[in-house]
Design goal:
Radius of gyration: 18 Å
CATH topology: Alpha-D-Glucose-1,6-Bisphosphate, Chain A, domain 4
Structural class: alpha+beta
Number of helices: 4
Strand content: 25-35%
Order of helices and strands: EEHEEEEEEHEHH
Number of strands: 9
Shape: globular
CATH superfamily: START domain
Number of domains: 1
Distance between the termini: 28 Å
Length: about 240
């Protein structure tokens, strides 16, 4: 699951890429454009989640996080790491559990990765347009792990969902991830959460983003599963 070899960057930043590509056909990923916060519809939020890690260096912490990232996620959510690992230019697929039992299929681009941090960028159709940066650093003699999200809900439907429970679900996801990450090092601590509304405006010119809505497309894909099964049985071997 990755971009083509000539699209990978030699340094910590991913090479410029117009559209994502994956080899396994995971829906709502291949052919989608990466989206920055300015490409979204809803209000812009910056969310910061932070927890202490104990006696570990930032480099050791990020190495563990890269290698075991999916293991720290809440149950029912899956991160399909690229074969090359979390490296600049790689693309990972995601299956996320949504209210009502819906499975939302989407992905992320590894925009940046070095020894002490990495940044994931969302594609068109994801719940939000933005970046998620995971980092580890030392402050006052203590090593800390941090996840920081800069985001806008991608379209009006996602903005409605984020307003009525989506933000709480997002917070629970990353609090669980950092709590599990700290527990890996034998640390039981609270995750501090800070939320700041950076821009309260909604960008109505981006309302058409709903065409790529991965939630709608995932639901239609699930609904069409019986039809695809019947067609597969009828097709010649």
């Amino acid at each position: 699951m990755s971009t083509q070899p000539d699209e990978r960057a030699a340094g910590p930043w991913a090479a410029p890429i117009d559209r994502l590509a994956m080899t396994d056909g995971h829906i709502n990923v291949s052919g989608r454009r990466p989206t920055a916060p300015m490409n979204g519809f809803g209000r812009m939020w910056q969310k910061t989640y932070r927890t202490a890690l104990g006696a570990v260096t930032p480099q050791q912490a990020i190495t563990v996080l890269k290698e075991h990232f999916p293991e720290f996620w809440p149950a029912g959510n899956r991160f399909f790491a690229p074969l090359a690992g979390i490296a600049p230019g790689e693309v990972a697929a995601l299956d996320l559990t949504m209210p009502g039992g819906l499975k939302l299929s989407t992905g992320v681009l590894v925009l940046y990765a070095d020894d002490e941090s990495f940044t994931l960028m969302t594609p068109e159709g994801h719940m939000f347009a933005g970046w998620i940066t995971f980092s580890a650093f030392t402050e006052d003699g203590q090593t800390w792990a941090q996840a920081q999200v800069l985001m806008r809900a991608s379209d009006p439907l996602y903005e409605l969902g984020m307003t009525f429970g989506g933000h709480r679900q997002e917070d629970r996801h990353w609090v669980h991830t950092l709590t599990s990450f700290a527990a890996h090092f034998g640390v039981e601590g609270e995750v501090a959460v800070e939320t700041v509304c950076v821009d309260r405006r909604r960008q109505w010119g981006r309302a058409r983003n709903i065409w790529h809505n991965a939630g709608i497309r995932s639901g239609l894909h699930m609904a069409g599963a019986p039809v695809r099964l019947v067609r597969g049985r009828r097709s010649p071997s």
